[in-house]
Specification:
- The structure holds 2 protein chains of 2 kinds.
- Chain A is globular and about 45 Å long.
- Chain A is 32% helix and 20% strand.
- The longest helix of chain A has 10 residues.
- In chain A, strands 4-3-2-1-5-6-7 form a 7-stranded mixed beta sheet.
- Chain A contains 8 helices and 7 strands.
- Chain B is α/β, with parallel strands linked by helices.
- Chain B is 30% helix and 18% strand.
- The longest helix of chain B is centred in the first third of the chain and has 16 residues.
- Classes of the chains: A alpha/beta, B alpha/beta.
- At the A-B interface, helix 4, helix 5, helix 7 and helix 8 of A face helix 2, helix 3, helix 5 and strand 7 of B.
Chain lengths: 164, 420
């Protein structure tokens, strides 16, 4: 898996209430959810995000509510990958389950600034900051999780008999 | 190396004699839960699986509590979708307006969870049932869908932090103060990916309502689950509410914990989490003159009968301060009825508070008490994130029912000792 895009950077403890405020949870329409993505934290996000952009954040990204609407809104907004120091656990598994690529890499978070051009090569475990020329090594997913992602999410894993 | 309480429950549900922290396992589920905002996403995913029937129609439950009674047409459509799915699938435990309560208050009350169970719920506060000695954790809608289809879920076996409780709580201090104190100590990601296990002689002095409240907020420290050692009080509660037999798992003597904290309950004071993170804790008595606009007493954290009794004791014969709206939300129909029969609702109404039918409502900024820009609320709920209860420029102070009631009366954040 390879991703290329510009970095959109946030701080620590970005919670699911600001990723997608609860007042919009009366719908499961992905496009509509995406149109409100990050609204309570950054009103400019949805106007400036471009397909393939990479979200970069600090500790405990996605904390709070279990709403899967949060990774859905991020994915549908065009974000291809989220890199953070750490993820809240429900957000982490929801992202894997719906097929949003996410990665824990504090070194990359420290070495990427807002707007930097970033390339991530998850097969070889390397993140490149093409703006500064820096390179960061990442750890691969556990094999079991890799299987879910490769299958295209949890529902596909069950359909394909990977999980019985 | 022995196993923690959580590891023992998980081992028993994946057919293994032993599991170790970090291991990925597929676990058999005793209950799969969803609500009116997470179930519609789950139903859409379930329908993609091509599996006709859920794994067990008695082990799936849906509770219409978040935006119910329906707050708008879209919310009505979502509840309709859940109702129709549960009808087709013959889901026995479908709770709609009139029977429903806030899910995490309702399920233990209905006896749907007993000690030793493994429960997943598409709601982050599913960790509440750890108070009964169950492994229960919040998941997303896709996990819920696959859980409904297969009766299984994948987990990474967590390591744990041990909290040894000793001593007894002082008057007007409750489980909420303990868990806010702990979150203040370890931070909102202090228990990330891990279990919080509560043990020690101090557990015995805590009511089941206190324990449910504490386990409920384990997620606010980032934990996978919170779990309490089972004692006579737990078994009594389970016997009173369920016909199912509890299974008691104790941590091994040589279980390994990442960290251990000793918490002296007698030293805990009324604690308030200031905006905008639950870890931002301060003492109520040191809060000075923070004027408030609204008080909410309710939620899956603090909407139980014991919480309303505590609030009513403080509000009895007093009035809600001028310019403060106080909203009391009994968590379930049974809590509502019991509170009515005990005269608690009369105390609230006479004090000038509004009493609502059960709903999650204002806790997540849904309906029934949304804040305007610049407004401040004291709430017995569980999150004080930016915009959680309304406008992004509003503020939420998390507190116990005792502090909330005292603050309603004075119009500023108040330690209950001051008004009693």
């Amino acid at each position: 898996m390879k991703f290329t895009g510009n970095a959109i950077k946030y701080g620590d403890n970005v919670d699911t209430d600001v990723i997608i405020p609860a007042r919009y949870l009366n719908t499961i329409d992905k496009k509509e959810l995406a149109s409100h993505c990050m609204e309570d934290l950054d009103k400019t996000f949805i106007t400036r995000v471009k397909d393939g952009d990479i979200m970069v954040a600090g500790n405990n990204f996605g904390c709070g509510s279990s709403r899967e609407h949060a990774p859905i809104a991020i994915k549908e907004s065009g974000i291809s990958l989220v890199i953070a120091n750490s993820f809240a656990r429900i957000f982490y598994r929801n992202s894997i389950n719906i097929g949003l690529a996410i990665l824990e890499c504090p070194e990359a978070v420290a070495g990427i600034n807002e707007g930097d051009k970033v390339e991530a090569d998850l097969d070889n475990g390397v993140i490149y900051n093409r703006t500064t020329g820096a390179e960061f090594k990442t750890k691969p997913f556990p094999e079991f999780v890799q299987k879910i992602i490769t299958a295209g999410g949890l529902v596909e894993s069950i359909k394909k008999g990977i999980i019985k | 190396m022995g196993m923690t309480m959580t590891q023992k429950v998980l081992a028993a549900h994946c057919g293994a004699e032993k599991v170790e922290a970090g291991e990925l396992i597929l676990v058999n589920l005793d209950l799969v839960l969803g609500n009116d905002i997470t179930s519609p996403v789950a139903i859409a995913e379930y329908n993609k699986l091509g599996i006709d029937k859920v794994f067990d129609s008695k082990k799936v439950t849906m509770v219409m509590d978040h935006f119910a009674p329906n707050k708008d047409i879209k919310a009505a459509e979502q509840c309709k979708m859940c109702r129709s799915f549960c009808g087709q699938q013959n889901i026995e435990h479908f709770y709609d307006v009139g029977q429903m309560g806030i899910e995490h208050a309702l399920l233990p009350e209905k006896g749907l969870v007993v000690s030793g169970d493994v429960v997943i719920g598409a709601d982050s506060h599913t960790c509440t049932y750890g108070a009964l000695g169950a492994f229960s954790t919040g998941v997303g809608s896709t996990d819920m869908a696959c859980g409904m289809a297969t009766g299984k879920a994948w987990f990474k076996v967590p390591s744990a932090i041990k909290f040894v409780l000793k001593g007894k709580l002082n008057k007007y201090v409750s489980g909420k103060d303990v868990i806010l104190h702990i979150i203040g100590k370890i931070g909102v990601d202090g228990a990330l990916y891990r279990s919080m296990e509560f043990t020690g002689e101090g557990v015995r002095s805590l009511s089941m309502a206190d324990r449910l409240c504490m386990a409920n907020m384990a997620i606010e420290a980032g934990a996978k689950n919170g779990i309490f050692e089972v004692d006579d009080e737990t078994l009594k509660y389970v016997a009173e509410h369920s016909t199912r037999k509890p299974v008691v798992f104790k941590a091994d003597e040589d279980a390994v914990y990442d960290e251990e904290y000793v918490i002296d309950l007698s030293e805990i004071k009324s604690t308030v989490s200031y905006p905008h993170l639950p870890e931002n804790t301060h003492l109520a008595e040191e809060s000075g003159n923070i004027k408030i606009d609204q008080v909410v007493i309710g939620s899956c954290t603090n909407g139980r009968l014991e919480d309303l009794i505590a609030a009513a004791e403080i509000m009895k014969g007093k009035k809600v301060a001028n310019n403060v709206r106080c909203i009391v939300i009994p968590a379930t129909q049974k809590v509502y009825l019991d509170a009515m029969e005990m005269g608690l609702l009369k105390i609230f109404v006479e004090a000038g508070a509004a009493v609502s039918t059960p709903t999650c409502g204002p806790c997540l900024g849904g309906h029934m008490g949304i804040l305007a820009a610049g407004e401040k609320a004291v709430a017995t709920t569980n999150r004080n994130f930016v915009g959680r209860m309304g406008h992004v420029d509003s503020e939420i102070y998390l507190a116990s029912p005792e502090v909330a009631a005292a603050s309603a009366v004075t119009g500023r954040i108040t330690d209950p000792k001051e008004v009693m």
